């Protein structure tokens, strides 16, 4: 038969589709009446013969989730022991093996497994079975059902015991739950993460499909069945040996054509799965279509546009939400040429993440109109007011001038980054040289290394911008360790020595960081002049210093908050959020820090009802970026507990504080954040009357806070007062009085009366009550309540704590 062109194949396809479902005698009559050429007729006849034969693709792939409904055949009986496991029942049967639910025979602990055993009649496929065991043995990922054990059964057949996953295929789960688009894309990205892990471990799955991807009872993706997987470093694996077991709906063209399956084959299958998840239908399968016709379409046709398919089949997701990015992403993953697909599963997932974040996707790279469209859609509220300016930028001389300006900005930023990279290299060199020269050597802590390096650098640097970058880089490391006190000392010494004095921008950077450390050290009077001086420099070039100006706004909001002007503090941050979303598009941690600060101000201002909306935005950002257990993620979780504490849901708050403190301690160790976690936990235990537990927790928190934020910092003072109250409540009035005596001078040194003054007076009231000095207790409580009432709405949540103490004083008289 001669080769056919595209028009010929269209005619062949049309005639094949017309004939495939007819009875043989009717089909023959129609063929005889056909007016197509002999060559085309020969191709049609060949396809029809293939469809009628007992070939490898004749039937749908076996469903391993259910026993054979026709026979119920099982080669192992319930109660039979295979290795360390006892058979419960057959749960699936495929072309190569049987899968049983089994449990570990040992009574030491309970463990259910999916035990897979090679079928007796499939003995010639023992090599594939062994290969699957080798594949699974090298994979340990939360999204992949893991291998637990393996061996040889009494009859000589090999078996393997895998983690048993209770779940539902991803497509069925999405249908049953009515999952929205974001949920489907999130789950699909989890699939990509698991597949990407397998690829990183040199494993290609080669049979990805919804029935091999379960959603477990916890809502997590679990990838199963590496039965025809191939090790990339396995030169003995013959690609044709397992072709008969492929599922043609999801197989890449090169697999069906007899070529070698690479990572690109899994990417193709992922594209098909994503197609089904958003449209509810496969790209190749049509009502009544035979497997040979599916194979022909895969080999010779391009897949249909997903959004058009969605229109035709009544998809679970509106076609308008698929059109554009998702169309492009899916079709890029499914391109016939492996070289034109995504390089791997992780690249595919990253492009989906860009789509969800309303950023340009790689699948549509190169279209100026598209790039501008994405910008406008993402920032539609901000863009509306400046549409005319955007038009001017995009055409004519205005566009050229703008481009030149951007080039200059990018050049300056690149120079800054190069300077910073050089600073990091120099600083690390000094740090490790210092450590090697000390007796501590390898046992030195990071803080000891930083302190030693800071001492040496401050004494040796000049007043150049390069030297200033070394200082700001080192101060950032202190901040990352939540050691504000260390950063504050370093920056003040650097300014006093004139480091960076030859460069206005470098000096402004030091002052901006010093304003931040001053806030953490409760040195509010220092903040305004530092912020003003820094902002005067950054205002000279707003386009270049967008990030720095946002940091100045954050500092001014902090200053307003410390002055009790919560309206201004909240307004400053809320107004800055659109700009922050643009500036921090690749810097998720700084964006989350802004969310955290906004939530802190809201909880302090007692705007508890408005917080859930901000929590929702912050949670979406955390989930999108995978930073739930970062310092910012833990801080936001802690704030959820503080809000509950203020709403008198103390038991729920305690659970959150326990979890946050445990996670932060295990990941980050002692830090300012851990001190705050323990302080909040101690407060919750005080409110629940768990005074011994409160004392233990707050006693642990106080030295950590003193070390990392300083003795006079607000958080340290609050923790100290809570500890004194717990001591008094447990009967140790002497120790309580001593702690109050240590804290009181530091609180009274704060000029403007506020929450710390109110807490001091309240703690004094508790101590005097326990001492039996009831008049003094009553007077102290009056002082505390007066301060709280003067705070207005910000102090309202604290008022409900006074009546119980007054009642205790009254009952003691």
TrEMBL record:
Pfam family, one: Pkinase
InterPro entries noted in UniProt: Kinase-like_dom_sf (IPR011009), Prot_kinase_dom (IPR000719), Protein_kinase_ATP_BS (IPR017441), Ser/Thr_kinase_AS (IPR008271), TPR-like_helical_dom_sf (IPR011990)
One function term, GO molecular function aspect: protein serine/threonine kinase activity
Top-level taxon in the UniProt lineage: Bacteria
CDD domains: STKc_PknB_like (cd14014)
Keywords: ATP-binding, Kinase, Membrane, Nucleotide-binding, Serine/threonine-protein kinase, Transferase, Transmembrane, Transmembrane helix
Residues reported to bind ATP: 116
PROSITE patterns in the cross-refs: PROTEIN_KINASE_ATP (PS00107), PROTEIN_KINASE_DOM (PS50011), PROTEIN_KINASE_ST (PS00108)
Transmembrane residue ranges: 379-402
Annotated Protein kinase domain residues: 85-358
SMART domains, per the entry: S_TKc (SM00220)
Keyword Transmembrane helix: yes
Name assigned to this protein: Serine/threonine protein kinase
